[in-house]
């Protein structure tokens, strides 16, 4: 493909190779009120450098590349907008306690005297009722509708809501239903308000309206204890004040008062993730989600649907915390709902959805707004008979270039509207011209360099041989451009212990040649020609090398390794070859050999729960950060596969992968018999996955708000440009927005994400994702358009970053306080004023408390000295680059009752809630969270199932050392293996399957994933946390 051409305004500056920014022209940098999260972690701003004007070349414009005829569009028809309703905001205009939150971590409402808590909870629970009107058959209008038009969820339940008086006295602090939007607020003749409120207490349809009422004279009960034997340790000990992971002011007592003889708060009466997930599936699964309407809330990530792009990016690419932004900064500050988008630019689309079109605007490059540089998209409005267009982002009026001119129809729409992806679709790609290339030269195809630690430890565990064997076949499967016969990616090989060995693999050689670099202080690449080779050309030499490596080092006694020089060597090799690429480093131990980046064992779990705990998540020195920056500047992405048998300082070793868009894998105490399959699956996925190199991402918005914060596996050299050496199909970047002005309700909030990158064939591309959101001055509109799963993604990533600079205790407090604020604001502005004291949750956010509690109980935020530092650091890095699907299942695992599986159905058995109570002695359960997978067998598991799955007669015969199931020819075995394969295919990481028996010693690790229960290492139960949040909300409202 031709890369020649010019544009008058160079889009990307190239003053510094690889670090160039987009050209400026993007709004002001007015300081924003900072009310969410953890304060000053912003990057220093450095202005983008000016680029160079290129002389024109004589190539004719490329013909348009798309030939899709079924382009459809129905964009932004105001008639399709979800109407907003006048919801009285009794407290608006007043000084709300919410407004005092600020960025201060010690918000004023935290001064609740802690000793009072138990007493307050007592008072609260004395009158607590758990209402169930929400799903009562008597009031069907309150039930989330299972029918109705799938694309207009806001109209469901569209009857005026009724208020049922609580059964207890009017002053009681119960949880009965109340109208989320007072019926009186609906003007006559107008459609009734959409259902925006949800009351705790949604349960099965046959449940009574009061699930729990305090028995007079009895101590209050807010918790329930798992009914179980005493062998699991943690649950039996009392709840300690300040136990790890406690929320602020956690009850010192109370939670553990519940005993078998006492009446418990019925867990079925509080919002259930399973129920919400299942209801969404029932309502929207298998349906078409057409993206033709501004601000549409997509189905949950757990619901399968087919997406049709009709002007907005698919939720597979972008998911938002809310699809309706508050119109003013004040309103945003009041509600404290973070405004964010989780962007996964390279998300894989299923085969039944149309792949992205590639558009060429010829030698002049993509058409862009002169002022804000936004790319041509459905948000541009053509005027004056098609001669000009108004930019949807900055309102600038631009001339339409003559070659792009087209007449308008009677609707003011271009006649070629449906023929051009950039006019009718939310996502598409542009071919980029030379101005978008480093040094204005077409890029070379990328390279993969495999770098294998051949020290004693890696050799002994059999890793080296395993890798070399696998690479022989894997090299045939390197990613390639569609229709290309073979991959353009070149490969190179390095082995190392405390010195590095490079290999000359030139196709003319009969044998590979080894060149040793023992001076690791100043790393250089001893050969240029023959290091990076084409797999096809050099196949015999490569195979020869891969056969020889395990033998060459079979008798090594070298136990020391270097690490930084290995990255430097790869980086230098890519620099010398003038290409981008990825290093695959297979490493075993803490790099203690004398060399740059040498590390010492500094693990110290005594720091946990102290002011210094944060140092465990900070790198040992700045060395790796500088190296990472260098890697990003030269488009060198680094993936690290760790095989440690002790502490390896994941925090420090993970810096480079996490800053370059790479991945980190960790196999503790790797054993070839049990872990080889897991590792190889990961390696295969990692090598073959769709990926873009030398990427720079910019998020543009319309006037009124802007992107202010970015979270993910990436690097920021200034405040606006996200730089990644490479980004693959699994990596998501979470972008937070703040107001810098008022948003116009008619225009809504518009987002354009542009990602410039080099594809696997070495072609420069621009991938564009557009999304139009609603905007409203009514809190109810905002709350009904929220997506809790995306909120948790943002909360997790920002909390995991905040622990670098703050004590974990503060970070946890901020999360709890913000949760209470969000819900209190809803209560204040959207729910009936007559229902003070009730816990009323917004329908779209009724899972916020349970998911938030899961986040608080995650390894990273727990602050328990029982947890290995490397494991916490590892999970922190994993979550940092996760998408919404990933964080949803990571924080609330999926628990499947295998004993209920239907061998004749394609479906999984319906999941159950992650709680001890849901387990059964006679059951078999599969639990997975995208990282871990367990198969748990109850003491009385059905012998028939055990026989079917393992071919052994009974529970006692189950071999728990297995990590995969035997392939047996019976329906149970087939169904079971198909479930596991399906789960593994759905996740970016392959999971090791751990088989556990009830009452085995190892069972403890399984139980800590039962996230609705009190944690083994600390952390409140869901019920306790919900009560605590309720108390906080009431505090805020008084
Ligand atoms: Zn513009």
UniProtKB/TrEMBL annotation:
Its main location: cytoplasm. Residues 65-81, 91-105 have a biased composition (Polar residues). InterPro entries: ADF-H/Gelsolin-like_dom_sf, Beta-sandwich_Sec23_24, Gelsolin-like_dom, Gelsolin-like_dom_sf, Sec23/24_helical_dom, Sec23/24_helical_dom_sf, Sec23/24_trunk_dom, SEC23_SEC24_subfamily. Residues 692-776 form the Sec23/Sec24 beta-sandwich domain. GO terms for biological process: COPII-coated vesicle cargo loading; intracellular protein transport. CDD domains: Sec24-like. Belongs to the SEC23/SEC24 family. SEC24 subfamily. This is Protein transport protein Sec24D. It comes from Scyliorhinus torazame.
